[in-house]
Structure formats: C-alpha cells, structure tokens
Known about the structure:
Signal peptide: 1-19
Keywords: Signal
Oligomer: single chain
Largest sheet: 7 strands, mixed
Amino acid sequence: MVKIVLVWLFLLLPGSAFALDMEMDVIERQLLDAVRRIEYWTLPEQQDRYTDPFDSLLLANDHLERLLLHYTTIYPGTIDYDFKALHTFRLGITTSEDGNLRIYSWDTRTGGTMRYYKTVFQYRNKSGVFSKASVENRQQENDPPGTMGCFYDQVNDVTVDGKTYYLVQRRYVLSSACSYHSLKIFTINDRGLDEKAKLIKTSKGLQNEISYETDWSYGVNREQDTEIDDAIRYEPEEKAFTIPLVLKNNKITDRRIRYVFHGRYFEKDPAKKSKE
C-alpha cells in the first residue's frame, strides 16, 4: 500500500510527465469552455431571449483572449502541446515547422458576411516562451475596418544564414464573395517576434508581404465555368509559393505566379507562370 502511495506521489510531482499532461488537459478544457461560450451567444435562442446579446459575445471573446494570453505565457509547455479538442472546435492553431512560432486565431462571430477575427501569437526565443495579442484584434463594434483581423492558415520555415524566417499565410474575409489573401514574413529575435522581416523581392525592392484580393461577385468571375483555386500554395521541397494571377479587371485566372527562394530571398520565377 505504501509503495502505491509513493508511486502516485511521484507521478504528481511538478515537472513529471504525468503532472504536465494533467495540467495541459485542464488548460485545454478551460479554453474549450471559453470557445463554447462564444458559440452559446450566437445560438438563435439567445438572440430571441435577450434583446442584445452582442455585448455578451464581445465579453466572451475577450475572456478567451485573456485565457490564451495567460496560459501561453505562464505555461511554456503549451507551445508544444497538441490541443486536439481545440483543433476541432473553431479555434485555429497553426505551428511553425521548428515549433518556435504558434498562432491561435478564431472567428469572433461578431460579423456578418464580413468576418472578424482575434489572434494570439506565441513564440519561443533564447529567453523563454512568450505570447502577445495581435494589434488587429477587434475590441468594439464601432472599431474601424482595419481592426477586423484575419485567420491564419499556415506557417512554413525558411533558413537564411542560420536565421529562421516564417512564411505566414493569412486570410481576411471581406464578404461571402470577397477575400484578401496575404503571405507575410515573420522572424524571432532576442527582442521578440518581428512581424516586419523582409524576404520577398519585387520590382519595388525587398518586401515584408505579398497580397492580393479575390472577388467572385464580379461578372467576369461569376461567368467562369471552371472551379479555380484562389488560395496561396506553398511547395516545401522546392521552397516556392504560388498565388493566382488576378487581372486588372479583377478576373481571377487559372494561371499562377510563382516565387522561388534563391538562397537569400523569394523572387518571381517568370518561367513558371503556368496554367493548371
């Protein structure tokens, strides 16, 4: 009996694998409850029961943001933990290949066809694991459009002279037909997360970001009889990415513009603008 008690005491010691798993499980349940609370205030019965549940919805989003910032700062192990339940319940979690950058983003459910998002960045450098809220996080109903936020789809790593850069794909949903796509460069240094790193060479010099807008409501796009992929695609083996070619009349074509990594930056590959 004494041996059994000693074994359980050992398993519950801080720092043991068992204790860490239990901590992460508790954290995930609390985050999941916070996400479900957002869903709760969007249910039709809540719209009927309360004259204006919007304030409660804003508070629910703020609560989730605070929880994420707290746990992702206080518990460094969260950056490596696979939150399986959260992955399947409207909270997007995308992690860099080296595991040093993780992005949590979610639809606040406060928009209509234009979607509003909140984002929390978590990163690891030599000093430890830290987190911060995106400056685009929407706080109030009457905030300007620039704070609508976006959803982060994917992160890929590229190393230049021993320094890791992150190619971050993100989407702004402007309406049911219109979206704004961006591939933005991040890096991590001793001071923290750098969101202004430049790794894409264009005719205007080195850039931090490349973006385009697709609007399927235009007649030139509605009349197309073939399905076109309007998303960014990354090719990890060749260290290249492609974006759809959008003409000046806003027509989205089935041709793609390809950018290839040349050892120091990404540059347009004129030989690879092809029809797929």
